[in-house]
Design brief:
two-stranded antiparallel ribbon; 6 helices; 6 strands; elongated
Length: about 240
């Protein structure tokens, strides 16, 4: 039967940290990973006059010029625009794959850890959850390979951290902290209150001795056996034997 916190309150900490990491990684909209400026902007943006673009793994967002304050502002209510697929190199594709893997592994790990708040996990199952969180951390960290793409290596361009990459940093830290808590301690299952005695020790089982039976002495005429335990009573009498 499921019970509330069979491993105690400790099981909540890695579950909460893992869930927060997954939500941080999920909060991106696909076009806010980095703020890119330089010569590549004219290649990406439709408006050749924009000074920068906010780019992600699958799309980008370009700013619009505000005549009132003479600044370039980004409207985050609008939809992202797709870029030329030729911009994607091996680093770009690898980073996109690792980011997707972090989302899948992180979400599965979060859901799996929340089951520990209702069901008893063995030590091996608990560590297996930790391995999943470690894989999510590794995939999230490898997503930063995106900054090794050709457009970021070009000296004429600048790729700065933006909301998406900063959220991935937070997710990586939270997943790492969750993994440390999992491998640092296995919270042993706790007994229910009715399974404990008044002094807090495990219940003991009292074993009662079987009743002793008196065996009649040989040759004692008229001796009887005591009735065996149970509802049926057998009356056995010893009689003399005539010797012919």
């Amino acid at each position: 039967m499921p019970s509330c916190l069979p491993h105690g309150a400790y099981s909540l900490f890695p579950a909460v940290l893992c869930t927060l990491a997954w939500l941080a990684s999920l909060s991106q909209d696909g076009c806010d990973y980095s703020s890119v400026s330089g010569s590549v902007v004219q290649q990406i943006a439709k408006n050749k006059d924009v000074p920068f673009v906010e780019i992600g793994f699958v799309a980008y967002r370009e700013p619009t010029y505000n005549e009132e304050d003479k600044t370039w502002n980004v409207a985050y209510t609008g939809a992202c625009a797709t870029y030329d697929p030729d911009l994607e190199d091996s680093f770009w594709k690898a980073a996109k794959g690792f980011a997707f893997g972090a989302l899948v592994l992180g979400g599965a790990s979060s859901l799996f850890l929340w089951f520990s708040t209702c069901f008893i996990f063995s030590r091996g199952t608990w560590r297996w959850a930790g391995y999943q969180v470690v894989l999510a951390f590794i995939c999230q960290a490898l997503a930063f390979l995106w900054f090794g793409t050709a457009i970021c290596k070009d000296e004429d361009n600048s790729c700065d951290l933006f909301y998406g990459s900063k959220a991935d940093i937070a997710a990586s830290v939270l997943w790492f902290a969750s993994a440390v808590l999992i491998f640092a301690r296995y919270p042993k299952p706790q007994l229910k209150p009715e399974e404990r005695t008044e002094n807090g020790s495990e219940p003991s089982i009292e074993v009662q001795d079987a009743p002793e039976m008196e065996v009649p002495v040989e040759g004692d005429a008229g001796a009887t056996l005591p009735p065996p335990p149970g509802d049926q009573v057998i009356d056995q009498r010893l009689t003399d034997v005539d010797i012919i």
